[in-house]
Amino acid sequence: MRVCLTVAYDGTNYHGWQIQPNGITIESVLNQALSDLLGETIVVTGASRTDSGVHSLGNVAVFDTNTKIPAEKISFAVNQRLPEDIVVQESKEVAPDFHPRKRDSRKTYEYRILNRKFQDPNRRCNTHFYHYDLDVEQMQTAANHLIGEHDFKSFCSIHTNVDSTVRTIYSLDVKRREDEVVIRITGSGFLYNMVRIIAGTLILAGNGTIAPDGVKDILEKKDRSFAGPTAPAKGLTMIGIKFVI
Amino acid sequence: MRVCLTVAYDGTNYHGWQIQPNGITIESVLNQALSDLLGETIVVTGASRTDSGVHSLGNVAVFDTNTKIPAEKISFAVNQRLPEDIVVQESKEVAPDFHPRKRDSRKTYEYRILNRKFQDPNRRCNTHFYHYDLDVEQMQTAANHLIGEHDFKSFCSIHTNVDSTVRTIYSLDVKRREDEVVIRITGSGFLYNMVRIIAGTLILAGNGTIAPDGVKDILEKKDRSFAGPTAPAKGLTMIGIKFVI
After folding, report:
1. Do A121 and B10 touch (CB under 8 A)?
2. Which residues of A touch B87 (CB under 8 A)?
3. Domain annotation for chain B: domains and CATH numbers
4. Which residues contact A134 (CB under 8 A, 6 or more apart)?
5. Would the CB atoms of A120 and B88 count as touching at under 8 Å?
């Protein structure tokens, strides 16, 4: 059967999702724990190959297994074998042809900016500390230009190698939550570093470096060098994925 | 001059505030960093001697120094010498006889219970994970019996050695904040383990083990064995202290 997992992790100590020759990854740790549990070689396929240092509350991965353990019990069993910074939230059986990257989906990410005078050590791993003033209204005005279907070439790493840089953003909300500014974004899919470059650009709109409407021009340039810097990985969390039926 | 610091820390890797023969403490790290910065032996006096694993956003400490560095600049300078899990939030000059434990004050603590089906690895160090249902209304009803001046002998560690176990709780609110249940308590001062025993007891009221009004009886017993267990340190954060003029 094919099993679908929802996986939460603290990405601080990992070299991202995808298996790499150097450095431990979420994928490699999951494969090991599942293989040990099920007594067969398990290879998971992830929906979102998050970068080094990025966190997750609801990334999705599938794998095939011959086990007789009911799919919904695998979450509890595998959590006993996982380190405390990776926790499977749910396991369930899916159709044998279900592929999490080939299905239409809506992915939601949150970028948290800790916006106060001094760093809070209790949030140092899950937020980007930024102590200058941020104007959330200006950030939202800038963000509104990105909603919809656009060519996001200016908002992806120059190291990206994809056929098309057109993506759809369904929603992009900037809100103050006590001493944090939280950017919440839902889209059909994101290019390499796209959410972090959007966050870095919205910070420039929030601190007055660029005019909010300047984001429209940045989009039109289709050139990475016009957008803001790539905001640090540790502020980013993959919240969840909804698959469109 | 006497300088007053507001100190935030992630208590995960410390054996609490107070200097101990075995294990690194917040106090010892602060003394070292301040002594190195100011070129004289500095000994801080803390307002709240938090336990091993307890966090802080606003603990207070004072020390005397001959430095010519303006008091309000010390925060920035000492943060350069502190590890990333301790961050001074403010430094200011106070009266030479100001003693943070001998002055009347209102201390606020927060106890965060992560109340969801599975652990969230991103909050594993700063919340107490508890996956059974909690009835917040029942917890608040129980909490209300503790507000005011009472003998809290039932709610302090049997290892406490104090003249009086009478304390005043000014407010005690239990609120659901998304998937967390947050207990926020303000009092004149707290006995050893008092907030964690209150949290452990309110959890019993929330899961139906004890009737909310049973807390009144527990108070009257003046015996630690009648209250709930001491909730884990990692859920507790010292929020701040207001000194009464």
Report:
1. yes
2. 118-121
3. 2-94 (3.30.70.580), 105-243 (3.30.70.660)
4. A113, A115, A181, A203, A206, A207
5. no
